[in-house]
Design goal:
single chain, 115 residues, 6 helices
């Protein structure tokens, strides 16, 4: 039996939340949110993929400000990161900001072409 790293543990909780959310089981997803956020805190420095995960966890819990904070950190690292642009789109949609959502969509297409 091998030990699970803090990142592996955090990612497993993230996957459980996303799977529950996809099944429409928001209650189960919300039950694991605090554990997943604590697990990512234990990881230490987060890479951009982990920041995206944490942002999606915050969005699942309805914490748009928490998701936005992760987006800001992700953009500091890579301003036109595709995951960051996708996240900006999701945040705009949650806020009901159609203009920003459309802007993020166009930015995604432009960045994707560049990739």
């Amino acid at each position: 039996m091998h030990a699970v790293t803090p990142r592996q543990a955090a990612d497993r909780l993230f996957n459980r939340i996303m799977a529950a959310r996809e099944r429409g089981d928001i209650e189960e997803a919300l039950r694991f949110v605090p554990m997943a956020l604590q697990a990512y805190d234990r990881v230490g420095t987060l890479d951009n993929d982990a920041r995206y995960h944490v942002a999606l966890i915050h969005l699942t819990a309805g914490n748009i400000d928490g998701a936005r904070a992760q987006l800001d950190k992700l953009r500091q690292s890579v301003p036109k990161h595709l995951l960051g642009i996708m996240l900006a789109h999701q945040i705009a949609e949650r806020r009901g900001d159609r203009d920003r959502a459309a802007q993020a969509y166009r930015a995604f297409l432009d960045a994707y072409e560049a990739e």
